[in-house]
Amino acid sequence: MSPLEIGLASVAAIVFLIYLGVYIPIALGAVSFVSIWIMRDNFTLAMNLLKIAVGDSAMEYTFATIPLFTFMGLIVSKAGLGSDVYEVMSSGFRKITGGIGMATVGANAVFAAVTGSSIASASVFSKVSVPQMIKYDYNPRFAVGVVAGSSVLGMIIPPSAMLIIYSFVAEQSVGDMFLAGIVPGILLAAAFIGAIWVMGRVTPGFVGGREASEYEPMGWSEIASKTLPIVGLIFVVLGGIYTGWLTPVEAGAAGALVALLIAIIRRSMSPRDFWEALLETGHITAFLLFLITAASIYSRMLGLAGVPNQLGDMLAGNNASFFQIMLIYVILMLFLGTLLDTASIILIVVPLFLPLIEPMGLSLVWFGIVTVVGAEIGLLTPPLGISCFVIKATLDDDRISLKDVFLGALPFAVVMLLALILLIRFPAISLAILN
Amino acid sequence: MKNAFDGTLRIANGIAISANVVGTLVVLALVGLVNYDVIARGFFNSPFLGAVELVQFSLVLIVFLQLPDVVRVNRLAASDGFQIVIGKRFPGFTRNLRRAIDLLSAVFMGLIAIAIFPEFVKMWVSQDYFGIPGVFTAPWWPVKLVILLSTALCTVLYVFKIVKPADRITMIKLLPETEDDPR
Following DSSP, what letter does each residue of A240-289 receive, concatenated? Predict the structure, then answer.
């Protein structure tokens, strides 16, 4: 077998093993290790690459953003900042059909600016907004669908763990990726709200619901006390990065400290909550960085096999257009999205396609936004839509089946796909803030 | 024999849990360290030399002190759809499949430990350091030692899982509510 064949066979083997249920980092690392060994017929070389990958990946300074932003996100969820924003929004949208749905999207967008994970968003909002929507006779399917759909905003609107991971693979600055994520994130949130408005007109049966009569209009002082903490936090983190006063690592640490102070002043967090947030941060960091380590062995293996270059030559030989390459890319991400989590998809596909995109003179920042949005669609699609599983597990209500969550999320997955096409066609959307 | 097995398992789990607690405290130390640097530099114009090196070192500590606990509670992400589909019809096959997966994981973790070991010895002997000489330097060997001990412990934990596979399949590995914690 030629190195190229071994390389392609190992990509197939990794996908197969993951389907069987092998831990994703183990599948990536073990298969890549074996294929390097076979390709070069050199066990020592494979061991050396293993040693370098494991030693180096965890020493990457910018990865300190992962525990810091994860910690900040967990603290703000425990401090109840998410439900505060939700209350303000739902009082604003109370007169519109689907209003609570729109409020959920809006609150998610704001909450996303202080948390880097869709999982956190999904679990917070299935607790606060689904029961409210069911109370006002919304279709349960729509209620869970809105939460699932809008939870993806958590990973697109900065700070986002996925943007950090992409910036490592593609060697882009974390700060640039964060700033680039703002406009597409707002665009997607607006598209979701627009979609709910259209659904309210065209298929009122799917939305359901009645005017939320019991909501009182909120006074300005209440609105201020519920929104100022989160606005301040966004100002510290994104403002700090935008003005260049803080590096992303420092912004993460400052954000975590401010979040902690807010939680202490409001006395909304028990010591147990605090300890759990710390434990959770450590687990997520250990998992993500181990996954990244395994993926770096994989991308070294691909490089040794020459897969990305050969793939490039092949597509160039067939005169593949920009449109065709992006079509293949999106289809591949959607396919992997059916069984992998977003981080794994990014780590598997980006090293394959980066060498194709770079010579075409396309912006790698733009490519990162396209990748994260494309990989996120997988959070909503069966059989392994992680956001949908989280919602099902958090609700723990037998009347709402997993199928309901997936069907409810489907319209939002379609909206995401349309937004993705827009983002691909008009790179300026992603690059607007940077220029 | 069974007692010895359970005893060793308990010790291995205990080490993983304690390492996890230490790693958790490092997260807090990281928040403090970076904020100290930001304030010292921004307001008092006296940056904390060595912040970068200490951040790097604390990352290694967080990841490798907590990895064994992630392994212990089965939170390393995997796609369990296939096993759930066939689990009911072929319970024996599914159990053996999980054993095979844990065996593969044990071998891989073991290989990392074996690959790191000579590196640790080399750094221990040479007392090599990282950072900028004259500004701030830290020795390499503690970094390598943490990785070595952590991956060795992960290997042991996976070997125990082969012998005594978990009965329950959990779907989500990233959520505290569904954490499968056998403590």
Answer: HHHHTSS-HHHHHHHHHHHHHHHHHHTT---HHHHHHHHHHHHHHHHHHH
Residue A418 to residue A406: CA distance in whole angstroms: 18
B125 touches chain A (CB under 8 A): no
Range 1-30 of B in CB contact (< 8 A) with A: 20, 23-28, 30
The phi, psi pair for A95, rounded to 5°, reads -90, -5
Whole-angstrom CA distances from A240 to A167, A180, A393, B13, B31 are 19, 15, 36, 42, 16
Omega cis (within 30) before A159: yes
Global pTM reads 0.85
Query: What is the C-alpha end-to-end distance of chain B, expressed in Å?
Result: 22
pLDDT, tens digit (0-9, with 9 covering 90-100), for A53-97: 888 878 888 888 888 988 888 888 888 888 888 888 888 777 777
Q: What is the DSSP letter of B90?
A: -
Residue among A20, A71, A336 with most chain B CBs within 10 A, to mutate: A20
Residue A43's pLDDT band, with cuts at 50, 70 and 90, is confident
Confidence of residue A190 (pLDDT cuts 50, 70, 90): very high
Query: Which of B75, B147, B171 is nearest residue A55 as measured by Cβ atoms?
Result: B147
CA distance A75 to A72: 5
Residue to substitute from A33, A44, A48, A51, interface B, most B β-carbons within 10 A: A51
Longest CA span, chain B: 68
In whole angstroms, give the CA distance from residue B178 to residue A390.
9
Identity at A131, one-letter amino acid code = P
**Residue A234: partners with Cβ closer than 8 Å, 6 or more residues away:** A110, A113, A114
Which residues fall within 8 angstroms of residue A59, CB to CB, at 6 or more apart? B56, B59, B60, B143
Record the tokens describing residue A308, joined without a space: 């990305």
Rounded CA-CA distance B25/B33 in Å is 12
For residue A237, what are the CA distances in angstroms to A160, A187, A365?
A: 12, 21, 20
Bridge pairing between strands B129-132 and B136-139: antiparallel
Amino acid making up residue A398: D
Q: Indicate the SS3 state at residue B55.
A: helix
What single-letter DSSP state applies at residue A62?
Answer: G
Question: Is the peptide bond preceding residue A383 cis, with omega within 30 degrees of 0?
Answer: yes
Judge whether B160 and B9 are in contact, CB under 8 Å. yes
Measured CA to CA, the distance from residue A197 to residue A96 in angstroms comes to: 9
Handedness of CA A98, A104, A107, A112 (dihedral sign): negative
